[in-house]
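Entry 12.
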Amino acid sequence: MTTPSTALREPRALGPDTDPELHHAFTSLEFASAVDPYPLFHRLRRDYPVAELFGGVSVARYDDVQAVLRHPHVSTDDRTSALHHSLKEQNRLSAPYLSQLDQQSFLHRDPPEHTRLRKLVVQGFTPRRVEALRPFIQREVDAVLDAAAPQGRLEVIADLAYPLPIAVICELLGIPAEDRDYVASWPRTQLCCTFETGSRNAAATLQSASDDHPRQAEADRVQQQLTEYFADLIEHRRRAPGDDLVSALIAAEENGGRLSAEEINATLRLLFVAGYENAVNLIGHGVLALLRHPDQWAALRQDPSLAGKAVDEVLRYDPPFQFTGRIALEDLDIGGYRIARGQHMTLWLAAANRDPEHFTDPDRFDLHRGGGRHLAFGSGIHACLGGPLARMEAEVAFSTLARRLGEPRLETDPPRYRTDVFRSLDELPITAHIATSA
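Predicted 3D structure (tokens):
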């Protein structure tokens, strides 16, 4: 670890005076719904590799992003940030917000607590349990295409990319069939945008909003629904264990320790929300990239075994989540810049994954790309636990679509993106000759 010194540079401010266009693009979240945000990421990586932004520090180069992800003195617990401490001392944080922070999963916990919790969760979320879902995923994908075949039209997001991960996570968790329509009714935007909100974004909103602010009230309502539903499911599985992840988490034990009901509940909320949103975006971004590059679609259609490489290239080229966050637990040296203790850092995974220092011709979509390791699922102790499941869902989807779709065409290009903080397709209608599964 490099010891910070007075020779370190201070991060340059990316503000309305230094670069109005780039500042507006990021502070207005324009990048999230842009047809092509990658020129913005290129400029950010080139001109502001480590910069002041959002009241924190923005990090855009591959080496720097990876260094932060693997650094032993960074945190994912929002309660360690200087902003959180300041607002809490001023009594400017709402009770629901503070309660949500206290109930967060191991994703937002640091060692040794994170280590203990993740070890226990891994006992239930095994590669064998994930791989056992492959036949179920294949049946679900085939059923979607069978239903779409007569019309020769598929709305990739609404028909496949969104319902497939919901069905898979329900199967994994052992959610009863009679509850699945209810679970699928939870609003996607509220789930992905209010789940385990971090102090850098949420606190800035909540400090000026009352507890009954409409957006916060809706967020609290959805989180309460999730918590109450999984509390009931945990109790049911205690009485009647099954061959599902909830039962496995209840049974998990490490050195005499077990997960509490609250810890299991937080883990289930994490797996449910993060698990499906990763897969939704991975499948949607992947189909879009493949159809925009007919030569790559043809290669996959000729050799469906390339589906695994297609998943990796999509993860690099247009990752499901374009950024993640960390907090400095002490003064850090990141790429020659001083990051102050308590500072929030936004790590731009999308910018890092197209860094020309690590990827040759990084703006080219190429299933045969070799070398380089994308950071789409993070790195270090907080690498995405559900990554292998999202990968398998996308792999089955891509290989099946390549096998069964003839002459697929995008109905609209560019497609429409959602208007929230995550870069996520709102819809992706395509036409094709869809072969039957028989």
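Annotation: The CA atoms of residues 192 and 274 lie 7 Å apart. The chain has 21 helices and 13 strands.
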